[in-house]
Amino acid sequence: MIETTLCFPLRDGGDDGDDVLLIEKRRGLGEGWYNGPGGKLESGETPQECAVRETREEVGLEVRDLEKAGELTFLLDGEEHTRCHVYRTRSVTGEPSASAEADPEWVPVDDVPYDRMWDDDHLWLPGVLEGATVVGEFRFEGGEPLDEAEFVAHDLEWDVPLGNGS
Ligand SMILES: Nc1nc2c([nH]c(=O)n2[C@H]2C[C@H](O)[C@@H](COP(=O)(O)OP(=O)(O)OP(=O)(O)O)O2)c(=O)[nH]1
């Protein structure tokens, strides 16, 4: 099973509410889709350390005080394929810059392009961006790669205490 992270940096967008920092992914799993910065854990790293590192590497932002917002499990043909630790934070320093992996963009939370994201994201990301915590299981069918499989079922539990996922 692959262990991964996602980080959703937030800022006050004034009258229009909050903005979230999204990336357009330039390569790998989910290429061409929007997501948060994130990726696979390296050995010896905690999920939170991974989320901080991936955000720095992909978009050049320094994030601190990460809050654990979700614990997602993606199953492919009945087998656990990927686990994803989801964080949000308002402690963000620097200006986002593009990398080989990611094209970053501050997007109003009300305008998140769910039609250009993984099929399951509209089920859990709005709640995460509003401050809720979620544990979710998402079933895909049709073989590798995961981003070409069909999303067939899900199960979500909200407001679950998650600790801080160090
Ligand atoms: N929003 C969202 N993200 C997902 C879903 N499924 C899934 O694996 N992800 C995330 C977990 C990871 O952060 C990211 C894929 O991992 P990655 O960035 O390491 O993949 P990659 O193939 O580019 O690997 P690498 O070369 O960067 O190591 O996508 C999903 O259904 N929704």
From TrEMBL:
GO terms for molecular function: 8-oxo-7,8-dihydroguanosine triphosphate pyrophosphatase activity; dATP diphosphatase activity; metal ion binding; RNA binding. Its EC number is 3.6.1.56. Pfam families: NUDIX. Keywords: Cytoplasm, Hydrolase, Magnesium, Metal-binding, RNA-binding. It is an enzyme of class 3 (hydrolase). Its main location: cytoplasm. Its cofactor is Mg(2+). GO terms for cellular component: cytoplasm. InterPro entries: 8ODP, Nudix_hydrolase, NUDIX_hydrolase-like_dom_sf, NUDIX_hydrolase_CS, NUDIX_hydrolase_dom. It is found in: Cytoplasm. PROSITE patterns: NUDIX, NUDIX_BOX. GO terms for biological process: DNA protection. SUPFAM superfamilies: Nudix. Belongs to the Nudix hydrolase family. This is Oxidized purine nucleoside triphosphate hydrolase. It comes from Natrinema altunense (strain JCM 12890 / CGMCC 1.3731 / AJ2).
